[in-house]
Specification:
Layout lengths: L7 E5 L4 E5 L3 E6 L7 E3 L10 E6 L7 E4 L6 E6 L3 E8 L8 E20 L2 H4 L4 E5 L2 E6 L2 E8 L4 E3 L4 E8 L3 E10 L10 H17 L8 H13 L1 E2 L4 E2 L22 E2 L3 H10 L3 H15 L9 E2 L10 E2 L13 E2 L10 H15 L8 H15 L18 H20 L7 H18 L1 E2 L4 E2 L26 H14 E2 L2 E2 L7 H4 L7 E2 H13 L3 H12 L11 E3 L4 E3 L5 H17 L4 H4 L1
Antiparallel strand pairs: 1-2, 2-3, 3-4, 3-5, 5-9, 6-7, 7-8, 8-9, 9-14, 9-15, 10-11, 11-12, 12-15, 13-14, 16-17, 18-19, 20-21, 22-23, 24-25, 26-27, 27-28
Helix pairs in contact: 3-14, 4-5, 4-6, 4-14, 5-6, 6-7, 6-8, 7-8, 8-9, 12-13, 12-14, 13-14
Amino acid sequence: MNQRIEDYALIGDLQTAALVGKDGSIDWLCLPRFDSAACFASLLGDEENGHWRLAPAGAGACTRRSYLDESLVLESVWETGTGTVKVTDFMPQRDTAPDIMRIVEGVSGEVEMAGTLRLRFDYGSVVPWMRRSDGHRVAVAGPDSVWLRSEPEVKTYGHHFSTCSSFTVAAGEKVAFVLTWHPSQQPRPALVDPYEALEHALEDWHEWSSRCRYQGPYREAVIRSLITLKALTFAPTGGIVAAPTTSLPEEIGGVRNWDYRFCWLRDSTLTLGALLACGYLDEAAAWRDWLLRAVAGSPEDLQIMYGLSGERRLPETELGWLRGHEGSAPVRTGNGAVNQLQLDVYGEVIDSLYVARTSGLASEPHAWSLQLAVLGFLEARWREPDEGLWEVRGPRRHFVHSKVMAWVAADRAVRTLEADPELHGDVERWRRMRDEVHQEVCDKGFDPERNTFTQSFGSTELDAATLLIPQVGFLPPDDPRVIGTVDAVYAELSHDGLVRRYSTGGPAVDGLPGDEGTFLVCSFWLADALRMTGRVKEAEALFEKLLALRNDVGLLAEEYDPVAGRQLGNFPQAFSHIGLVNTALALARALGAPEEDAG
């Protein structure tokens, strides 16, 4: 039976990640990369699709769990009738091969432990051939090879195409398990000492966390979100995945299940802002450089998302043998939205590079030329309808947010040229474009009777993305149209204070059946808008409500169902944690935290 999404914790090595349940089962792991096929896929099916459980015999959920200090090392504790035991799970930053390490330690009394390793390659569809070799259990299938060992050695036995173990730990005793993946045609990688690896992992995370210069209110939540964001970074390229999972449902039992193991351009500006504000200049530069490489080429070929290294082909496929999380099918890999026209991303790219330039990151010589090329393309296309930032699979529309981001693109170009007149560019041309877009949005995207901006030209639907209008500078926060929009979104799109992206309203709106939960990043945007319009106490209350939705180890999915009281969507979600960081920093400034503390 599936655990809830929020029952999982994240471990990772900056190239892939695993989800560990409260019951001690690793139910999701893709090797060797975030976007590789999963070898543990019970998250999206059942135990036969692969998992690795290590827990006291007959036990259910752990008594408590937490990350050690400011790290990604997870410690789960079970208090049983015969004693107490803890399991420490982590993935050390790899030299060559990825490892998962699980250290069992007796705390008091004596506890009987049970382990079940059920490897199923290619998203739970391939049963590997198992053999013994030099103290290891070795699983091989096609290109994949996995080696399992323990220190000291624990007797294992095969049962129902799984590797099982049963052993007892007393107070002070330790048993370490190491699972290592490598290409099956290559020799086994060198052994890594799990206890030394744990020390190094804690040292690495402590050094990284200590670089955070934010010391203001909500620091615990901010640093946990930054650690999560770091964990979702693909270290070889600097790309940041939206989430380490695919197809976790936006509605239990529904079809809104998407693959988020890719890098969205849309996240770039807010990600850069969070990293730069907290002092992570190297990570910000790596993300900026990934962005420049990914979008290089003709602007007409720009995509909304790319693979970890900038790959363009992300074909969407359904995996019919997986039943889906809690029966939420289909399970998909790849993402067909990659082929959509979403005009807002052009503005986000230009805004990201503007933020990088004005924040003092070392400039890249070709970055400005790229921005001019992107802006020239947008100048010719901004009047067209598109699929918008929510990637609707219904008809194209003139989405207000897309037009606002076209204004942002022109505005940032004007600001850049005004600040550096020696740069090549026609500032008057971009001023004219900026003015034209602004007039068009105000004339066609605003409903004067309801005093609110709408989702698209001529529609009556609302859109939480319009909350960003004061944040990007399109209108000042005290403009009556901004205040009216905030009030309208709050009244019509919120449920118990949490905000939906838009009214789903069936296929006529987004081309999909069913419904979805409230969208967490939109709820952070509402807190930002409330703060900017002078309602700081309301913003603070909403932010603290959002903090309370995190699971027991501080993680957030994409959405939240306020009726069922549970998280929904892919998990953990970078966009949600980016929203948390940026809102926390802005609130800290509004509440009067010292500048060096507020970021």
